[in-house]
What does this fold into?
Amino acid sequence: MNGSAKILVGTIILLVVAGLLFLTLSKKQPETTPEPAPVNEAPAPTPTTTVSVIGKSVEGREIESHVIGNGDTDLLFIGGIHGGYEWNSAELAYEIIDYFDANPNEVPENITIHIIPNLNPDGLHLATGLEGKFTGTDVTSYEMHETGEGRFNSNDVDLNRNFDCRWDPDSTWRGRAVSGGTEPFSEPEAAAIRDYVLAINPVVGVVWHSRANNVYGSECGGEVAENTLALMNAYAEAADYGKVPIFDAYIVTGALEDWMAGRGIASVSVELETRTDSEFERNLRGVKAALELYRK
It folds into this structure.
């Protein structure tokens, strides 16, 4: 092959390669779908826990409120209104506080829980010698006397007879005459919880007592309200307690639960089965049932 032929062949090869390259580059590439931008889902706010002093007892002991949650719907739980006589109700309150402190995201976003663990610290101290937070092991040597030792405050007033619903200075407890105070809210402990209720305006008021193994409804001069009956049923069924719409074993005057019910608050008394056990698991189910009742 002479030089001219070689040049011609080389030129042809170059043109073919160039043509193939052109076709390859000009061929439409398939479109790719861009990855969606990640969505930054804001986590549910973690409820915060705060502790405040809402008042003091006759002897100057602090009455605390533990608040867990961020919601606009307030639920109130109260232990220890009868001090050492019902010490296990205060123990239960502290255990419920500990549980939600450790599991704050179990509080629905729309709810705030308020727990007053011991409304009668003087009564608890009188009967048990204990101050502040305690456990059942701290009181194993304490024997509850039928005299009601530790039930009353340091003015010898039954705090659950000192509220402004059918109040009477001369009240009764299990056939025994007890003092309801000189007037409604004459006792600093009752005044403290009154002011707290008026400040937070809860939709629910649960007061832990012992012992009757029932959940009782409340009223103040009328029928038991539907919201109280719904709370009574939900708590009792979850915690496996009996359900009693109205306590009628004897006349009760000036009760905290009845005063709250008179203000439109769904209000119940939860009477534990014993005086020696907080019955924590049962009552945790009851508290969670109350939360579900008001979850949005």
